[in-house]
Amino acid sequence: MSAPASKVPLVVLASGNGSNLQAILDACQGGELPTRVAAVFSDRAEAFALERARRAQVPALYFPWKPFAAAGRDRRAYDAALAREVTVYQPVFVVLAGWMRLLSSAFLQHFPMRVINLHPALPGKFPGTHAIPRALQAWQAGQISCTGVMVHYVPDEGVDDGPLIAQEVVDIQPSDTLETLEARIHTVEHRLLVAALRLVIARPVRIQKEE
Question: Fewer CB near the terminus (10 Å): N or C of the chain?
Fold first, then answer.
């Protein structure tokens, strides 16, 4: 059953399995969030996130990079075209839930301080891909005592360094393998992302990125 149109519309971008998308869908369905997922976009046809969207009767849209590259068009052309498609759904927020492409200003300028990203590390730590295995390696080398999860705004082209919305520390145990640490972090991700969305919807504020 479709969510009431009066609920705050979100568009979710996801490149993979979509477990964080599922956390949002479940929170919408269960009344934890006063939101509805208006559409889900993925740059990968095989992304299970698209199947999760279809099961929830949410528009699931595959938006590949390859045709742009084949035509000699650049990243900004892709981002501008993606922004046009996303705008059709009139989102209040765009949520990056496992979106594996960096977004340029050609996309971000259309949604100022309305793009929200989830990253499996603490602020200033392990930006970019493979954050969890990099954190585990750093812990094994005695360089860190813990890792964590953060949710932040994406105001510009910086990598995982926008203004913070929420964070949570995740301890690393001596018995941890990559699989056990990933599982614990994913559990925190699901909870923290929903809490962060609830926060920004309830108390929207203007935040300037720190220099």
Answer: C
